[in-house]
Amino acid sequence: MSDPATPSIVTRDLNLWYGKFQALRGVSLDIKHGLITSLIGPSGCGKTTLLRCFNRVNERYGYVTTTGEIRVLEKNIYDPDVSLIELRRSVGMVFQRPNPLPLSVYENVVFGLRVHSDSPPTRATLNEAVEKALREVNLWQDLKDRLHQRATTLQLEQQQKLCIARLLPLKPEIILMDEPCSALDVEGTAAIEELMFSLKGKYTIVIVTHNMAQARRASDECIFMLLGQRIEHRRTEDLFIAPENPKTAEYIEGRYG
Amino acid sequence: MSPAPAPDDSPAVMAVRAARRPLWARLGEKSIEGMVYVSGISAIIFVLGIFVFVLKEALPVLGHEDFSLSRFLFSTEWYPTSEASKRYGVLAMIAGTFSVTLLAMVIAVPFGLGAAIYLSEFCGQKTRETLKIIIEFLAAVPSVVWGFIGLTVMSKLIVQFTGAPVGVNVLNGGIVLALMSVPIIVSIGEDALKAVPDSYREAAIALGVTRWQLIWRVLLPAAKNGLLAAVLLGVGRGVGETMAVLMATGHAVHVPQSVLDSVRTLTANIAAELGEASAGSEHYRVLFLTGVLLFTLTFAVNLAADAIVRGIRRK
Ligand SMILES: Nc1ncnc2c1ncn2[C@@H]1O[C@H](COP(=O)(O)OP(=O)(O)O)[C@@H](O)[C@H]1O
Ligand SMILES: [Mg+2]
Predict the structure, then answer these.
(1) A35: which residues sit within 8 A by CB, 6+ positions away?
(2) H helix count then E strand count, chain B
(3) Of A67, B44, B97, B250, which shows the fewest CB atoms inside 10 Å?
(4) Which domains are assigned to chain A?
């Protein structure tokens, strides 16, 4: 566990290009430990791109170039001795569309344990991990009799909760969420927000949202981005009540849509 | 059956519609519709026509007194031109077809699936384009050319490296057929892997899998139906291929004991003997019956592949 006073994620002058297109411009941030930080901004401003830098999944595309520094849990993630596998173990990610693997509920939850253990984990370890993780995301009551059902047949809300649950057995420090509610209805959204509150403190959560009401309700700190730049980063209440930058004010008044 | 015509079909409406468009336009449209329809069902008609023709030529032999279907299927004695006692047993040829196809698949499946995985998951855009062109080129090589390669190049190599007395045998035919099946397996296998939603890859990568874990735990299970279909279509190619195996397998009617034995396949047997058998003779009809047997085999394999592919789509 890192010291609560030091930020979980630090970026310095981060630039990112997709081919020749620059998607992030000189982004410097300190994301605080144990809080929920929301990333807001108009569509296409680079929220997803920034989030995907923190576990280096952007590099899947061969045409991405990054400059600048990113420190996650006090470790520069571009150091040559960094293991991507370990990085992704401690930095979990939840996607915009729920994407459980085409396996059973049970196998989805223990997938991480299976791929990260050198020797096959025992049945008892797995069973315990499944129950613990599903209880933590409030799915245990609903799914305890259906653990062997294919996860892709669940309701979307349950799928998204499952996608959060499958991160937990790996004991991540940070959970990145990219518009986790955008595929869900109002009730689903409320359920995921509630879940975020219950996870708060145990994990550092970074959530991308284009829903300002959600950012306001659910986050402690808020970062406003525009055209690949970080415009403003403050406590959520302050950012919404008294934005410093006029562009932030325009956005939260709804002028960019 | 609706008792009253729908308002849209009322004579007045029809008349107005008809008046809007000239006669030739309407006739042209009808005839194009007809042509599309005919070409659509022509595939079925041709297949049925061929099957009926082959069946018609074959069936009379079942009535012959000295012909027995079980001997046809389960005897290895093939003496169609013997004066004293003609015997028509194709078991040796069935064994030939199966041994060559099996060996071909043992070689082609790992290579084909490996190449499909490499193309879809590992290599860059440029390499992929180049390799796909080469693979399509391989698929376009006529089978007689493959046979020629088997007969000349491959057989010399086999004699040289294994010390077999003849180089045209199961091994040679298996390798040649494998080379012919690999392009099918690669291109269908690659399609199957490409059809796995990218969100599965992202999910697994974000959970920290290695490349191999991604392939073993996510991609292969998710694409297994398509990959199986790719393999079955490769098998279908093996069972039905004629020219190349005719030239590469040595043409001996013999149940093979090792991969260095010469064999004859069902297809090669028909191709080689049909020209000599006089039309309507028993020999001629037995060859057609062999055709029915082959037709049934390849049909079953293709049907299985098709059912599997359909299974994927429904999901
Ligand atoms: N894989 C990609 N390849 C090329 N351009 C991309 C890719 N992903 C995003 N972009 C571009 O980068 C910019 C930022 O995108 P994104 O981070 O998805 O924005 P947001 O999540 O804020 O809507 C957009 O202009 C988008 O078109
Ligand atoms: Mg986005």
Answers:
(1) A200, A204, A205, A219, A220, A221
(2) 16, 2
(3) B44
(4) 9-96+173-252 (3.40.50.300)
pTM summary value: 0.81
Is the domain of B173 the same as that of B240? yes
- A256 Cβ below 6 A of ligand 1: no
**Which domain, by its residues, includes B48?**
11-63
pLDDT bucket at B194, cuts 50 / 70 / 90: very high
Q: Which residues of chain A lie closer than 8 angstroms to B311, CB-CB?
A: none
- Residue B86 and residue B58 in one domain: no
> b/e for B9-23, b at 16 or more Cβ within 10 A?
eeeeeeeeeeeeeee
Is B200 at the interface with chain A, CB within 8 A?
yes
- Please indicate, yes or no, if residue B278 is contained in any of the structural domains: yes
Chain A interface includes B206 (CB < 8 A): yes
Question: Measured between CB atoms, which of B124, B204, B210 is closest to A101?
Answer: B204
Task: Say yes or no for a CB contact (<8 Å) between B206 and A88.
Answer: yes
Strand boundaries in chain A, DSSP class E:
9-18, 21-31, 36-40, 64-72, 75-76, 91-94, 174-178, 204-208, 221-226, 229-235
Q: Distance from the CA of A50 to the center of ligand 1, in angstroms?
A: 10
Q: Which residues of A199-230 are buried (b: 16+ CB within 10 A; e: fewer)?
A: bbeebbbbbbbbebebbbebbebbbbbbebeb
The Cα of B124 is separated from the nearest Cα of chain A by a number of Å equal to 8
Neighbours of ion ligand 2 (CB under 5 A): A 48
**CB neighbour list of residue A81: distance below 8 Å, 6 or more residues apart:** none
Task: Give the torsion sign (CA, B90, B92, B98, B100).
Answer: negative
Q: Compare all CA atoms of chain A with the CA of B125 and give the residue at the minimum distance.
A: A62
Using CA positions, which residue lies closest to atom 21 of ligand 1?
A48
Using one digit for the tens of pLDDT, what is the confidence trace for B129-187?
999 999 989 889 998 999 999 999 999 999 999 988 888 999 999 999 999 999 999 99
Ligand 1, atom 2, lies closest to the CA of A18
State the ligand closest to the CA atom of A228: 1
* Cα A53 to averaged position of ligand 2 atoms, centre (Å): 13
Domain presence at residue B256: yes
For the four alpha carbons of A230, A233, A236 and A240, in that order, the dihedral sign comes to: negative
Six token digits for residue B61: 């032999």
Q: Do A97 and B199 touch (CB under 8 A)?
A: yes
The predicted structure's pLDDT at residue B19: 61
> Total structural domains in chain B?
2
Q: Do B127 and B208 share a domain, yes or no?
A: yes
Model confidence pLDDT, tens digit, residues B266-308 = 999 999 999 988 888 899 999 999 999 998 988 888 888 788 7
